[in-house]
Amino acid sequence: VAQENWDLHLKRNNSIVTDHMTGLLKSTVTCPQCETDWRKFDPVNTLEIELPLQSFKPLEVTLVRRFESASDVCPPMTYGISVERTTTMNDVRRQIAKLSGIEVDRLEIWETYQNVLFQRFAPNELAFKLVKTDVIVATEVEPDLPLRVFMANRQGPYQHPKGPREKPIHQHFGVPLLLSVDPSWTIRELKEHACIQMSAWFGVTDSETTRCAFQFKVAQLWLGRRGEDFSPFEEEKFVTGLHDEMYTDVDDEAVVGVPVTIDEFRDWFADGADPTTRPSLIELPSKDPKIDGANTCAMALEWNERMIQKLRQFYEGETLPATMLHVADDHDSVIQLRENAGAITLDQCFELYTKKTMLDGDNTYYCGKCKDHVRGTKVLGVWKPADVLIIQLKRFGMQKFYGRHMPEKLTESVEFPLDGLDIGPYVADHAAAQAQPEKFIYDLFGVVNHMGHASFGHYTASIRKGEWINNWACTDPGDPKEAAKAASEGVGKAPAACLWEEFDDGKVREIDAESVVSSRAYILFYRRRGSPSC
Q1: CB distance 421 to 80 below 8 Å
Q2: Parallel, antiparallel, or unpaired for β 216-221 and 247-249?
Q3: pLDDT digits over 226-280, tens only?
Q4: How far apart are CA 329 and CA 168, in angstroms?
Q5: Beta strand spans in 319-440 (E)
Q6: Closest C-alpha among 2, 78, 528, 494 to residue 326
Q7: Residues sharing a CB contact under 8 Å with residue 241, sequence separation 6 or more, in sequence order
Q8: Is 312 helix (H, G, I), strand (E, B) or coil?
Q9: How far is CA 60 from CA 74, 83, 92, 134, in A?
Q10: For residue 473, what are the β-bridge partners?
Q11: Torsion from C-alpha of 72, 73, 74, 75, nearest 10 degrees
Q12: With bands split at pLDDT 50, 70 and 90, how would you rate the model's confidence at 532?
């Protein structure tokens, strides 16, 4: 029956794609009443494999306290929290408050991405959608100081794009500061306060605070302009003004003041943009009405070369760290959470894929012998695997939250082998798997990665770099003599020794093999060891 189905498929799909990338999947449904097995063989290009669902996931939050003087500063602390599917960001805030001893109303939780503010969270927003790679920060705020300033660290002044098609160059680094500010402060007082809070990431003493403040400049972040209109919203749900902004230097003696709304700023621009009445601060807008954007703005703290060199000396490196999170201490909760949070393996996914399942509810099976819909059992198995095995990890779906079906992405990390994947235990043709087990060994050569959530995201690809030798091994393509020698002797470097490259839009960079296996992995491309070149 399997060969008959395969021959029928070839009559309409005879191509090189079918030859190398199409396999045969066997499904067996058993009727519980007459115990008849109904078998079906279907051609497949991709194995869509579900992930074993977990009722909770680990979430790490780095807490930054607020200090009145540099002498009181202590390093940030990273806490670990078990997040369930119904856990809200307000629940996360309560747990951080309980672990840290800080009052709930003195904590604000937000996310940073590419060294700037990415988003703030509404109280009832679900925390389960956050992924392991998201950088979540909790900052202690002062409720008596009404103004909130998100301050991004930047190397030197803002560099304007040279042409209309070029993007601005943003040299941001580290973790932004969230400051509780008195609107009556001067910019110099704001910088001194920023230097004190910065001590959590970068050592500054009380005596150095005022002196360091003179080394910095503060720039106002203006929202990007599209055509003749100011666009407060970009693709992200929450805009920081860090995309196509125009920067304006702020004088040290100027008063910080209260930010104006977007509508007020639009009116000022429409009335001729008089520089003498220019608003000093602009509120950060939000599409989510549950997030209060009032009295919240963004600014940039410009580091001069002298301070940059001092920062490099502090971190004992020639380059600035991408983030400063390694400075944070680990709380007992995060240590325990990491020990208990084991990764899912690809073998576990295959076991779930080939596990016997019950067909009930709307999925009952119509038995042709009993002439009735029955609660049958179904078993899947690979009958004829393709030379190129494509495995899609089913990370996207719909989940029910508070009576509503909402899109969800599963962000659990799946451990999969770079070399030597053995699918023999999951092959339905047991005789073939036992007779020729070497035909069911595969090596990874590509991964499609997805970063983001169910409603938005970005795709990249990781590709194994090198030439395939003897149909299973690869060698350095830069040394053709070595490749020829390996081919003639029947040996070569193990595939794991090859380099990998990451393709991110127009950017290509070499990456370590260890970084290929991550929670971003979405589609895996394996090649049968010993298969002909394709």
Answers
A1: no
A2: antiparallel
A3: 333 333 333 333 333 333 344 456 677 878 888 877 777 777 767 877 767 777 6
A4: 35
A5: 329-330, 344-345, 357-358, 365-367, 372-374, 377-384, 388-394, 396-401, 404-409, 414-415, 421-422
A6: 78
A7: 221, 222, 223, 224, 282, 284, 298
A8: helix
A9: 19, 10, 10, 9
A10: 469
A11: 180
A12: low
Question: Can you read off the two tokens belonging to residue 441?
Answer: 């060994």
Going 20 to 22 to 23 to 24, the CA torsion angle's sign is negative
Tokens describing residue 437: 């087990």
The residue behind tokens 């087990």 is: 437
What pTM was estimated for this model as a whole? 0.62
Angle at 531 between CA 527 and CA 532, to 5 degrees: 115
Closest CA to 398 of 85, 44, 125: 85
User: What pairing do the DSSP bridges indicate for beta strands 421-422 and 388-394?
Assistant: unpaired
Q: Which two three-digit tokens encode residue 63?
A: 């807490």
Instruction: Report residue 83 as tokens.
Output: 């997040």
Quick one: pLDDT at residue 123?
86
Residue with tokens 């932004």: 176
* Token reading at 12: 């309409």
- Contact call for residues 63 and 424 (beta carbons, < 8 A): no
DSSP designation for 533: P
Collapsed DSSP state (helix, strand, coil) of residue 362: helix
State the residue for tokens 């992930």. 51
